[in-house]
Automatic annotation (TrEMBL):
Superkingdom, taxonomy of origin: Bacteria
Record's signal peptide: none
UniProt name for this protein: Tetratricopeptide repeat protein
Pfam families named among the record's database cross-references: TPR_16, TPR_2
Keywords: Repeat, TPR repeat
Residue stretches of each TPR repeat: 51-84, 85-118, 119-152, 153-186, 187-220, 251-284
Organism for this UniProt entry: Halochromatium salexigens (Chromatium salexigens)
Gene3D superfamilies membership: Tetratricopeptide repeat domain
Length: 302
């Protein structure tokens, strides 16, 4: 009897996989395979005949920024070879880039079912779970990713973020520096190191890292804002205003510096900045007015 049930289980697994692949492919504006096996992206050369060819076609499309086309070919690679962890990992990467965390996680888990030691899938799923605040499993996955491939900068970055959440700032620093050794031109990694140093109370280290981030990308808003945060915390208001002025208008900059001063307990400074924001934009900056009222309430002026 056991032998007679085996084909049924095999058919059920095949049906489940086909359902999964269909779910991973469906996007607005992206069709599925037609009954005859021709797809919307087959082109003049026809459909790839092997999983390796489909992966190559997907990579080519991805390099040209054609995400729908790349996704289609990666799904075909997974259909041809259901144990192809690389295909599922690349499917997960596209859904992650699109912000579809549910489909991305599904693809990464399918990749790990095919190969439990696939470093990119471990890192991808670990990062997704960090965003979903499942920190325990995320930590386990990212540590496994680094064990499998110590060269994965994003896995080190993810472990740095998790260490910051635990307030383990020495570990966070080690992971961010390991990531930067692999990707020294990344403004995001410099910014993350800077914010970690700020949390650790190392203002000089934070400023140095934020300055490196803005050097790598002068338009990186978060680095400018974080740099202003440290300056304002130090009472270097002119420097803070100059930093914020790079990425936002002046009334908003005055309001934001005032807010930092307020939460730091420097209420007179905060009120001065809120008043300046109101003078610069009395009709359009109600937020500064609300914040000024909060300062007066904190001081007991009303």
């Amino acid at each position: 009897m056991a032998a007679s049930r085996q084909p049924t289980r095999g058919l059920a697994r095949t049906a489940s996989l086909l359902s999964l692949l269909l779910g991973l492919l469906l996007l607005s504006g992206c069709e599925t395979l037609s009954p005859g096996g021709e797809g919307p992206f087959a082109g003049a050369a026809g459909m790839p005949e092997t999983a390796a060819e489909a992966l190559s076609a997907g990579d080519s499309a991805l390099s040209q920024g054609e995400l729908d086309r790349a996704l289609f070919f990666y799904v075909q690679a997974a259909r041809m070879d259901p144990e192809n962890a690389e295909a599922f990992t690349r499917i997960g990467g596209i859904h992650e880039a699109r912000g579809d965390r549910q489909r991305a996680a599904l693809a990464y888990r399918q990749a790990l079912q095919a190969d439990a030691r696939h470093a990119d899938a471990l890192a991808g799923l670990g990062i997704l779970l960090t965003r979903q605040r499942d920190y325990a499993e995320a930590t386990e996955l990212l540590r496994a990713a680094v064990r499998e491939d110590p060269r994965l900068a994003r896995a080190h970055n993810g472990l740095g973020v998790l260490a910051d959440l635990r307030r383990d700032y020495p570990s966070a620093k080690r992971h961010y520096e390991a990531a930067l050794a692999l990707a020294p031109s990344s403004p995001m990694l410099h910014n993350n190191l800077g914010y970690s140093r700020y949390l650790a109370g190392d203002n000089a280290g934070a400023i140095a890292a934020f300055e490196k981030a803005r050097e790598r990308n002068p338009d990186y808003r978060l680095a400018w804002r974080n740099l202003a945060l440290v300056y304002a915390r130090q009472g270097r208001y002119r420097d803070a205003l100059q930093a914020l002025g790079k990425v936002q208008d002046l009334p908003e900059a005055y309001n934001d510096v005032g807010y930092i001063a307020m939460v730091s307990g420097r209420l007179d400074d905060a009120e001065s900045f809120f008043d300046q924001a109101l003078r610069l934009s009395p009709k359009h900056y109600a937020l500064a007015s609300d914040n000024a009222e909060r300062v007066r309430a904190l001081r007991g002026d009303r």
